[in-house]
Amino acid sequence: MSTPQTPAPPLAVSAAVLVREGHLLVVSKQAAPGLFYLPGGKPDPGETAEEALHRELAEELGITLRHHRFLAEIHATAALEGVPMRMRVYEVDTSDTPRPAAELAALRWTDGRDPDLRLAPAVSGQVVPLLRERGLLS
C-alpha cells in the first residue's frame, strides 16, 4: 500500500514589472531563448522575496532599484519548470539601463500586443491584463 505524498510547495519567485513609456520589460533565458517572462528569480535560503528581487535584478540586468512596490501575487504553472509557482510581482523603478547578463539571452520592451513575441502564460494571461487594467501599458 502506498502512502499519500504531500505535494511540494509551489516554486517561490520574485518578479519585476519595469514599465517605461507604456512598455513592459521582459527577458528570455539562454535555456529557452524564445520564451519571454518577467525578470527576477527564486529567493536563496534565508532571503526575503524583496532581497531576492534586488539581487536577481542586479545579477541578471545590472540594475539597482530606486524603489519597489508589491503589485500582486500570481499563482500559475512555471513556464520552464512546469511546476506550480507563486510569483510575487513588484512594480520597480531604476534609472539604470537594463542589459542582459548571467543566464539571460535577451530582453525586450513590449506593450503585450506583439504577435511575434512569445510571453510566458503567467505574463500574458495575468500580468499584462493587470497592467492594462491599471493603465500602465500603452
List keywords for this structure.
Nucleoside Triphosphate Pyrophosphohydrolase; 2 helices; 4-stranded antiparallel sheet; 8 strands; 4-stranded mixed sheet; 138 residues; 38% strand; 19% helix; alpha+beta
Description:
The protein is globular, with a radius of gyration of 15 Å. The mean pLDDT is 94. It contains two helices and eight strands. With 138 residues, it is of the alpha+beta class. It has a single domain (11-133), classed as Nucleoside Triphosphate Pyrophosphohydrolase (Alpha-Beta Complex), CATH 3.90.79. A hairpin with a 6-residue loop joins strand 6 and strand 7. Residues 8-133 form the Nudix hydrolase domain. Its EC number is 3.6.1.55. It catalyses: 8-oxo-dGTP + H2O = 8-oxo-dGMP + diphosphate + H(+).
Provide the CATH top-level class.
Alpha Beta
Number of strands: 8
End-to-end distance, in Å? 57 Å
* CATH architecture verdict: Alpha-Beta Complex
Helices, by number, come to 2
> What profile does the largest beta sheet have?
4 strands, mixed
Structure class: alpha+beta
Average pLDDT level: 94
How many structural domains can be distinguished in the coordinates? 1
CATH homologous superfamily descriptor: Nucleoside Triphosphate Pyrophosphohydrolase
* Rounded radius of gyration (Å): 15 Å
Weakly predicted, low-confidence segments: none
Report the helical percentage: 10-25%
Strand order across the biggest sheet? 5-1-7-6
CATH topology: Nucleoside Triphosphate Pyrophosphohydrolase
Strand content: 35-45%
The H-and-E topology, N to C, reads as EEEEEHEEEH
